Automatic annotation (TrEMBL):
One GO term of the biological process aspect: purine nucleotide biosynthetic process
Molecular functions per Gene Ontology: ATP binding; kinase activity; magnesium ion binding; ribose phosphate diphosphokinase activity
Organism of this sequence: Synoicihabitans lomoniglobus
Pfam family, one: Pribosyl_synth
Cofactor comment text: Binds 2 Mg(2+) ions per subunit.
The name this protein goes by in its record: Ribose-phosphate pyrophosphokinase
Superkingdom of the organism of origin: Bacteria
Enzyme class: transferase
Localization of this protein: Cytoplasm
Annotated ranges, domain Ribose-phosphate pyrophosphokinase N-terminal: 6-122
Lineage: Bacteria, Pseudomonadati, Verrucomicrobiota, Opitutia, Opitutales
Cofactor: Mg(2+)
Length: 317
């Protein structure tokens, strides 16, 4: 019996990343028509035979979130109805992840709803990166491979010479302490935290800092930034406490117009992010690192039924 062939398809959310992944692992990007009708309805047609094949569908659910989510669901359904052997949804950025609990009366748990939709569409496996909260993996009733962007950030930090005794890794809020602690351990640096108070959905008032940043180079770490309010306010607090420089490492930069305006202020020396979603630097100090190699290697290992644990390791650790 012939082993299933590896097939990779992409929606319109982040086709350049899909093309980069395919180039990195030497697999051609599959032919598919992904467009929409004049009334906005999505239309998908897979233009090659995938019967019995190992199919990977690459789609970040970034802006416009609902449209890209529907593209993903329809592509999965098309692959299922075309008799694919296995369908892995590759979701570098998982939208709706911040709605992962009932924190007030009569609100949904949308992260779970989206997980249900993806499974119902026909996905048999998920490959994603830096979920907003670890428990989202449990929202799926299918296997989830959860990667981290930390190896990519680590290489960049070493390249620019930040990884030394003068570095302090800081979480811009209480919720990110576990992530910041992991980065601090990885980089052998001190750890700090900013305690913040949110005043609205778009504004944050940072209140105090825990840890010593006086005369230090600070690396703020977070998984998502949209308005950059948390990062900018944390950076202001860092500088007020004597930080020499402030950089931010954020896995998913969903930069809104408000975020670009705030970044122009210069409080952050460099925003380091990844290409899990398309990012336009717009002449600002924004460095976009590629996760194509990481995702590509994960795809190959999943296809060959190998462990992906080795992808969590960083050179020298």
């Amino acid at each position: 019996m012939t082993a299933p062939r590896l097939k990779i398809f992409s929606g319109n959310a982040n086709r350049p990343l899909a093309e980069e992944i395919c180039k990195a692992i030497g697999v051609p990007l599959g032919e598919a028509t992904v467009t929409k009708f004049p009334d906005g309805e999505s239309f998908v047609k897979i233009n090659e035979n995938i019967r019995g094949q190992d199919v990977f569908i690459m789609q970040s659910t970034c802006t416009p979130t609902n449209h890209h989510l529907m593209e993903l669901l329809i592509m999965i359904d098309a692959a299922r109805r075309a008799s694919a052997n296995r369908i892995t949804a590759v979701i570098p950025f998982y939208g709706y992840a911040r709605q992962d609990r009932k924190d007030q009366p009569r609100v949904p748990i949308t992260a779970k709803l989206v997980a249900n939709l993806i499974v119902a569409a026909g996905a048999t496996r998920i490959l994603t990166m830096d979920l907003h909260s670890q428990q989202i993996q449990g929202f799926f009733d299918i296997p989830v491979d959860h990667l981290f962007a930390s190896p990519v950030f680590f290489e960049h930090v070493e390249k620019i010479g930040m990884r030394d005794k003068n570095l302090v890794v800081v979480s811009p809020d209480v919720g990110g302490m576990k992530m910041a602690a992991a980065y601090a351990t990885l980089m052998g640096s001190a750890l700090g935290m900013v305690w913040k108070k949110r005043t609205s959905a778009t504004t944050v008032e940072s209140v105090n800092v825990v840890g010593d940043v006086d005369g230090k180079d600070v690396l703020l770490v977070d998984d998502i930034t949209e308005t950059a309010g948390t990062l900018i306010n944390a950076a202001k607090v860092m500088r007020a406490h004597g930080a020499l420089s402030v950089r931010a490492a954020v896995s998913h930069a969903l930069l809104s117009p408000i975020a670009y305006d705030r970044l122009k202020g210069g409080e952050i020396d460099e925003l380091i992010t990844t290409n899990t979603i398309p990012v336009d630097p717009r002449g600002l100090p924004i460095t976009v690192l590629s996760v194509a190699g990481l995702l590509g290697e994960a795809i190959l290992r999943i296809h060959n039924n190998e462990s992906v644990t080795g992808l969590f390791k960083v050179k020298g650790f």
